[in-house]
Design brief:
There is one protein chain. Helices cover 37% and strands 16% of the residues. The protein folds into 3 domains: 141 residues, Rossmann fold, CATH 3.40.50.1100; 167 residues, Rossmann fold, CATH 3.40.50.1100; 73 residues, Arc Repressor Mutant, subunit A (Orthogonal Bundle). It is built from 14 helices and 16 strands. The strands form 4 sheets. The protein has a 6-stranded mixed sheet, with helices on both faces. Strands 8-7-6-9 form a 4-stranded parallel sheet, with helices on both faces. It has a 3-stranded antiparallel sheet with strand order 2-1-3. By secondary structure, it is of the alpha/beta class. The two termini are 48 Å apart. The chain binds zinc ion. The site of zinc ion has 7 residues, from loops.
Length: 417
């Protein structure tokens, strides 16, 4: 297999990053094409390797949410709960070594670990400080060796490449061109299921949006389509290197897209430009809100994926809009304490009321906090609005009692935090 740099056309026969700094792609050979079978491997004619290792990934549904005026491609249905399984099936089918290394802040690492386990190979995952606990748990359960390095995925490149050189590991990181090949099958599936005007995609390193572009551009070359849909990349306002190249990135809760110096920056920008698309930034609050909106519709997506819903709802694009929901929320249970709109003081009040019913002054005394009694009444009103407590007047005092809903909340809260 020949790898080629899409920027300077230099060719390589091994997995690396081009001397010019660009990730490589597989040199294209897309002449004879027929689609048959299911999932990712339905498109084997357009893929550079033959199917060897597969957990039946791909073939994820597109769901229409009429009232939101959005379509969702639900990639959480993949074997490990994210679209990265598309990359992993290609990478493991190509890998000819016993041991693989991968630098990842979550989903790709989990996929590589799972598929390595399935293939009977060893995976060494380089993982930064900021990683979601569910993803780390997956990696451990799939029996990966975990090496913690640096703060973000930006810090992993050198240690992984160094380790691959020294140990003869196969490099399964995102810049492995086979990962683009696997992920481009999202474009093929979308093409087979309908026509869309806009496609909203979360961007971290930019590899995902570039791979979808690659899929559509191959369909264009094959004359299956006459136009590539508008590709819209979404980032968090806190970390938006695609729109603000020189801005100082802050931590975003959407850890899967917490990338300060995207490897695929130029390629992703070109893809968006050629498709007449655009990059959007979404605030952390809007991302969290969008996650809740989707959950209330039955789709629990991770925060990075919720950016696409937030952008779709905020910008109301003309035409049919498809949001790529890349990964499951079950992987990312780093839930903030006030996530459900119940602050720590409210939790304390609920705990007191679970012991016994009580009145304002007594609650205030028992909280033993430097706060005005009026503030306690505000919290009590808030809890009453959420139906977590009820009140009744006895004599001159108003007594508060925890409701079943309040008790249930405390139970769930205990498990989550
Ligand atoms: Zn190059």
């Amino acid at each position: 297999m020949v790898f080629i740099c899409p920027k300077c056309n230099k060719e390589y026969d091994y997995i690396t990053i081009c001397k010019c700094g660009s990730p490589l792609v597989v040199k294209e050979d897309i002449t004879k094409v027929s689609f048959r079978g299911e999932g990712v491997w339905r498109y084997e004619d357009l893929l550079p390797v033959k199917k060897k290792i597969s957990l039946n990934e791909g073939d994820t549904p597109i769901i229409h949410f009429n009232d939101l005026d959005l379509y969702i491609k639900d990639e959480t249905r993949n074997p490990t709960g994210s679209f990265r399984d598309r990359a992993a099936t290609l990478i493991l089918s190509h890998c000819d070594r016993k041991r693989l290394a991968c630098g990842s802040n979550g989903n790709l690492g989990a996929s590589i670990a799972a598929y390595s386990a399935f293939a009977g190979k060893e995976s060494y995952l380089f993982v930064p400080k900021y990683v979601e606990r569910g993803k780390l748990l997956q990696m451990m359960m799939y029996n990966a060796r975990i090496i913690r390095v640096g703060e973000t995925v930006d810090d992993l490149l050198d240690p992984v490449q160094e380790s691959c050189r020294l140990n003869n590991f196969y490099d399964a990181s995102e810049y492995n061109p086979l990962s683009l090949e696997g992920q481009k099958t999202m474009a093929f599936e979308i093409f087979e299921k309908g026509e869309f005007d806009n496609m909203i995609i979360p961007v971290g390193n930019g590899g995902t949006i570039f791979s979808i572009y690659r899929g559509f551009s191959q369909l264009l070359k094959l004359e299956f389509i006459d136009k590539i849909p508008r590709l819209i990349g979404v980032q968090s306002e806190n970390c938006a290197p695609f729109t603000d190249k020189n801005a100082v990135a802050k931590k975003t809760e959407a850890l899967a897209i917490y990338v300060k110096k995207p490897l695929f920056r130029d390629l992703a920008i070109e893809a968006v430009k050629k498709s007449e698309g655009v990059f959007f930034k979404i605030s952390e609050e809007e991302i969290r809100e969008a996650q809740k909106i989707m959950a209330k519709k039955g789709i629990f997506c991770e925060l990075a994926s919720a950016t696409t819903i937030a952008a779709g709802l905020k910008y109301k694009l003309k035409g049919k809009t498809l949001c790529i929901v890349t990964g499951s929320g079950l992987k990312s249970f780093n839930i903030k304490k006030d996530y459900f709109g119940v602050t720590s003081t409210k939790i304390e009040i609920l705990r007191l009321l679970k012991e016994k019913e009580s009145y304002g002054y007594e609650i205030w005394k028992n909280l033993n906090k430097k706060m005005k009694i009026q503030a306690v009444y505000q919290h009590l009103n808030g809890l009453q609005e959420k139906n977590m407590i009820s009140s009744k007047k006895i004599g001159r005092k108003i007594y508060y009692t925890i409701t079943d809903k309040g008790k249930r909340f405390l139970e769930v809260y205990k498990e989550m935090i």
